[in-house]
Amino acid sequence: MLPLLGSAGEAIGGTPLVCLDRITSSLGLDRTIATKLDYLNPGWSKKDRVALGIIEEAERLGTLKPGQAVVELISGNMGTGLSIVCAVKGYLFIAVIFRGNSIEQAYMMSALVKGLEIEYRAFCTDQFTRDRNWIAYYNRTGVELWKQTDSYLDRLIDFVGSGGTYTGVTKKLESVNPAVKYFIVKPDGAAVLANKQISQPEHAIQGGGYVMPDLFYLKDVPVDGYLQITGDQAREGARLLASKEGIFGGFSSSANISAAIKLLKGEMRGKTIAMMVCDSD
Fold first, then answer.
1. Beta bridge partners of 279
2. Which Pfam families does the record match to this protein (predicted)?
3. What is the pLDDT of residue 190?
């Protein structure tokens, strides 16, 4: 029996890992896709882990003090995670939201934040540069994946936004099994990390495909290949996840499943591939 928890913050992490055998068998694919259901975190995404890690480190270092505000420029799930963590810890959270965010996410954010007001001494979480981003995935997600697959894992694929998940999990898996191979998933037409020309900056897959040629966390981290997924392929992936497995994944999650299927149909036939269901947006 699970213990009674003191807050939603204590429920972050420890998400289940499931095999997508109904998808692979329906497509005649050998082997399986091991999928981490991080959309079952309290804020419905993997970014809850980062939000908790960054805030707790800031408290430990003294850069975030009682009564201080927390601010973040967000394009997706990080804002929801920070809203939850700040709510249970008593911090004012100020979210700056990109114009391209979904209206549903904007409504949810307005319900969670305590207000938008001028604050000159706020703590900026800056998920693209603070090491607690990738360390949260190194200490928890990577460890959970390795244990839940019973130490049997061939490949990791990840749709990269800030690069925190990919970096943290890759570094952890490298430390326990150097034979694992790693692949980055990006939107077709916006795969700048793969040195591709940007032709679709306004692609359909939210949460990644930023026009940044270098990501801070990816320095000195192995990449064995890049996979480009179109918006239509991501939509088809979402339909497969829902109809075959009963999993409601967002676009980045759907890009991951489409990329995993592409690998299993080709050079990775017979391998066990791990991926994340990042959220359910």
1. 45
2. PALP
3. 72
Domain 46-124: CATH class, spelled out: alpha beta
Q: What angle do CA 33, 39, 41 make, to 5 degrees?
A: 125
200 Cβ contact partners less than 8 Å away, ≥ 6 residues apart: 187, 188, 189, 190
Q: How far is CA 137 from CA 52, 133, 170, 173, 191, in A?
A: 11, 7, 9, 11, 23
Torsion of CA 158, 163, 164, 167, to 10 degrees: 70
Report whether 224 contacts 183 (CB < 8 A): yes
pLDDT at residue 59, as a whole number: 96
Parallel, antiparallel or unpaired: strands 17-19 and 33-37:
antiparallel
In angstroms, rounded to a whole number, what is the distance separating the alpha carbons of residues 211 and 96? 19
Q: State which CATH number among 3.40.50.1100, 3.30.70.20, 3.40.640.10, 3.90.640.90 fits the domain covering 8-40+140-277.
A: 3.40.50.1100
The pair of three-digit structure tokens given for residue 74, joined into one six-digit string: 């967000």
Residue 260, H or E segment: helix 251-265
Structure-block tokens of residue 185? 């998933």
DSSP strand E in the chain: where? 17-19, 33-37, 69-74, 92-97, 123-124, 155-159, 181-187, 225-229, 273-277
What does each C-alpha distance from 84 to 6, 8, 43, 46 come to in angstroms? 13, 7, 7, 13
pLDDT score of 75: 62
Low-confidence ranges of the chain (pLDDT < 50): 116-120
pLDDT at 129: 83
Give pLDDT, residue 117.
Answer: 45
